[in-house]
Amino acid sequence: MVGSMQQAVNYWDTHCLLLTANCILFIVKMPDTQLLTDAASGDRRAQFQLYQRCYSILMGVCVRYRDSEEEAAALLNEGFLKIVRNLENYRREIPFEAWIRRIMINTLIDDFRKNRKVSELIEHRDFNDANDHAQLLTFNLAELAFEAEELVAMIKTLPPVSQKVFNLFAIDGYSHREIGLLLTISEGTSKWHLSFARQRLRDLLAKKNGVVYANKL
């Protein structure tokens, strides 16, 4: 029983990324060296071509962190400007897609940190590893019929900090240590938010599909 539950947890961690990827993540081919050089030097045409190539993946990141398309578009433009300004520092041994995603995510987190309210953080307490693991999900997503678009919409219903932690950990691959540094919270708090987000999504998915799951492992 315990083994099957752990498999369900692992299934969630792996497939929530794959399901989301079907909807909002795109592959950005490595731009040729000349295009990057021209864009870095201020060539507007080259910058626009690069913008077109990067738009899909950058917007895919932004819509997961912002409720409105207007906010997402504004921050996308801000992130792209940072990408252009840092092109001279880009090293081609690093996958271009990973590099622009990192800059975009950092832009979104910086904006969040500037605008968040202290009350969003102090209402949650720290939890240790044991408590975190004790709250993992136990349902099997293979039994639930939903589209990636619905998952994204459900993620947006989470409280601000929980939403950021879930996106960073489950989809963007950040560690709890990295998340703690980005959001200025402890690793324990980051883990709690992840468990809280998973539980909330579990409840939403169960409600949508009319399925009742056990609340405890």
Characterise this structure.
With 217 residues, this protein is mainly α. It folds into two domains: 113 residues, Winged helix-like DNA-binding domain superfamily/Winged helix DNA-binding domain (Arc Repressor Mutant, subunit A), CATH 1.10.10.10; 85 residues, Rna Polymerase Sigma Factor, Chain: A (Orthogonal Bundle), CATH 1.10.1740.10. It is built from eleven helices and no strands. The longest helix has 23 residues. It is elongated and about 55 Å long.
What is this entry, summarized?
The chain is mainly α.
**How many distinct domains?**
2
Task: Summarize the helix and strand pattern as letters.
Answer: HHHHHHHHHHH
User: The CATH topology of the largest domain is what?
Assistant: Arc Repressor Mutant, subunit A
Find the CATH superfamily of the largest domain: Winged helix-like DNA-binding domain superfamily/Winged helix DNA-binding domain
CATH architecture of the largest domain: Orthogonal Bundle
Structural class label: mainly alpha
Shape: elongated
Number of strands: 0
Measured on Cα atoms, how large is the radius of gyration? 19 Å
Strand composition percent: under 5%
Poorly predicted runs: 1-26, 117-146, 212-217
Question: How many angstroms does the end-to-end distance come to?
Answer: 9 Å
CATH class of the largest domain: Mainly Alpha
Average of the residue pLDDT scores: 74
- What does the largest sheet look like? none
Query: Counting H and I runs of at least 4 residues, what is the number of helices?
Result: 11
Estimate percent helicity. Answer: 55-70%
